[in-house]
Write a structure and sequence with these properties.
Number of strands: 11
Radius of gyration: 20 Å
Order of helices and strands: HEEEHEEHEEHEEHHEHEHHHH
Number of domains: 1
CATH topology: 2-enoyl-CoA Hydratase, Chain A, domain 1
CATH class: Alpha Beta
CATH architecture: Alpha-Beta Complex
Largest sheet: 7 strands, mixed
Distance between the termini: 77 Å
Structural class: alpha/beta
Strand order of the largest sheet: 1-2-3-4-6-8-11
CATH superfamily: 2-enoyl-CoA Hydratase, Chain A, domain 1
């Protein structure tokens, strides 16, 4: 293959037929790339972003010419920092909560690998998205972590269960309970990502992994992905059940208090909420 042929092969072309405002959707031979394009908000996603992600992932999954999908974030500061906090007074708004589940299922269920190219912050729901991807390549400046309980929220489905499978139960509990930040090297050591490269090599390395996968039997790749996920199919139901509890929690004073405390940079009044029944008034008649 000549140099010109190789350049043409790696040339990304914006996919026509879509009117996306929050993401960039591109393809090159065999590969689709979805870029969350909200760098001004550290690539936090809104309900609209999720709708666009779902539409792009559905198209990439259905396109028989595509063998690998890449998920990344615009710029070099953030991969994704979860849901845009401005969309709800507490937690996620209802539409975002429902679409979040559908986006994760689209990543898991499409019959081809999804690679997260992690540049900068992968925090909260953004960390869950990279974790749900089949493979993850991180730049050396990547930072990982959870913030859920710190802001009156949590992913009580795949975000917790899948993390436990990736890094072990003790480490997963540490990540969720402590809400600390972890470097790319620490993420590699715990098994949260597959490889760490210098920031200027992230796209090159991701392309290399895509090309290697494209050389493998697509039927067997699809079969293997389905096999891996067969053992964890229960997470779909657990997440749906968890969302019923989560939605009620988001309507509580406790969730709003933690989110407000976070934004105001003050310590929460945790003693106020140390009670047996989290939803005051439910059992008042007893």
């Amino acid at each position: 293959m000549t140099t010109d042929d190789q350049t043409e092969k790696k040339r990304w072309i914006k996919v026509s037929g879509f009117n996306f405002s929050d993401i960039i959707y591109e393809k090159r031979p065999g590969v689709a790339r979805v870029t969350i394009n909200r760098p001004q908000a550290l690539n936090a996603f809104t309900t609209n972003t999720q709708r666009e992600l779902l539409e792009a992932f559905t198209d990439a999954g259905d396109d028989e010419t595509i063998g690998v999908v890449v998920l990344t974030g615009a710029g070099n500061k953030a991969f994704c920092t979860g849901g845009d906090a401005k969309e709800a007074e507490a937690g996620y708004r209802r539409g975002m909560l429902e679409l979040d589940h559908r986006v994760k299922m689209a990543i898991r269920e499409m019959p081809k690998p999804v690679i997260a190219a992690v540049n900068g912050f992968a925090i909260g729901g953004g960390q869950v998205y990279q974790q749900i991807c089949d493979l993850s390549i991180a730049s050396e400046n990547a930072v990982f972590g959870q913030v859920g309980p710190k802001v009156g929220s949590a992913d009580v489905g795949m975000g917790a269960l899948d993390l436990m499978l990736a890094v072990g139960e003790k480490k997963a509990k540490e990540i969720w309970f402590m809400c600390r930040r972890y470097s790319a090297r620490e993420a590699l050591e715990m098994g949260l990502v597959n490889k760490v490269v210098p920031p200027d090599k992230l796209e090159e390395e991701t392309d290399r992994w895509c090309d290697e996968i494209l050389e493998k039997s697509p039927t067997m790749i699809a079969a293997l992905k389905a096999t891996f996920h067969t053992a964890t199919a229960y997470m779909h139901g657990v997440e749906n059940l968890g969302f019923q509890h989560l939605w009620k929690y988001y309507a509580s004073d406790e969730s709003a208090h933690w989110k407000q405390s976070f934004w105001e940079k003050k310590k929460p009044d945790w003693q106020r909420f140390r009670r047996k029944e989290p939803y005051a008034g439910v059992y008042e008649a007893e």
